[in-house]
Amino acid sequence: MNEQELQALYSQVLDLSQNIPNSQRLEDADATVTMVSPLCGSQISVDLKLRNGIIEGFGQKVRACTLGAAAAAMVGARVVGRPATELQALRETMHGMLKENGPPPHGDWQQLAILQAAQDLVSRHGSIMLVFDAIGEAIEEIQGQSGNTGPAPPGKGIPDTVRA
Questions:
Q1: Hey, which residues does 89 pair with through a beta bridge?
Q2: 36, 43 Cβ separation under 8 angstroms
Q3: Would you kindly state where each structural domain of the chain is located, as residue ranges?
Q4: Confidence (pTM)
Q5: Alpha-carbon gap, residue 54 to 80, rounded angstroms
Q6: How confident is the model at residue 19 (pLDDT cuts 50, 70, 90)?
């Protein structure tokens, strides 16, 4: 990514990151998960209510770079009322897009394709993935599944995100 492309990316996501929807915490959450990106220090706490497989309530506290905050903003604007399975699939799609040159999300989530430009910014992948990993972990916790069953971290090096 050249300097001009990087500036265009930040210009587009800056507006998103300035107003993050659902920034309030839920007092009656079914699960609360905090995730951290060890590489950059970005952090997100997610509160989730799930009823009959549908996300009924969502709150988040975001301390992340512009890219991570923009991802949280785009998800926060659309997550309530969505099936948990859709968010789990979105997590896999985003991981594939960033790590494996996979296709970007489509449909109601197509706005997230803007983050495809961050594929070369490996140090920011963790911050971008925070919201997806936190929601995935919260869903798994509510459904009684064990720990991180999302995309496996690489065989060596620092993982993109860890549960705090």
A1: none
A2: yes
A3: 3-147
A4: 0.87
A5: 8
A6: confident
133 membership: H or E segment, kind and range: helix 125-142
Q: Is 37 helix (H, G, I), strand (E, B) or coil?
A: coil
Could you count the other beta carbons within 10 Å of the beta carbon of residue 38? 13
Count CA atoms within 13 Å of residue 102 on its CB side: 14
Residue 104, classified by CB atoms within 10 Å of its CB into exposed (0-12), middle (13-18) or buried (19+), is: middle
Q: Which residues pair with 46 in a beta bridge?
A: 33, 60
> Does domain 3-147 match CATH 3.40.50.2000?
no
Contacts of residue 84, Cβ cutoff 8 Å, sequence gap at least 6 = 50, 53, 54, 55, 139, 143
Q: Is 67 helix (H, G, I), strand (E, B) or coil?
A: helix
In sequence order, the 6+-apart residues with CB closer than 8 A to the CB of 73 are 16, 17, 19, 20, 21
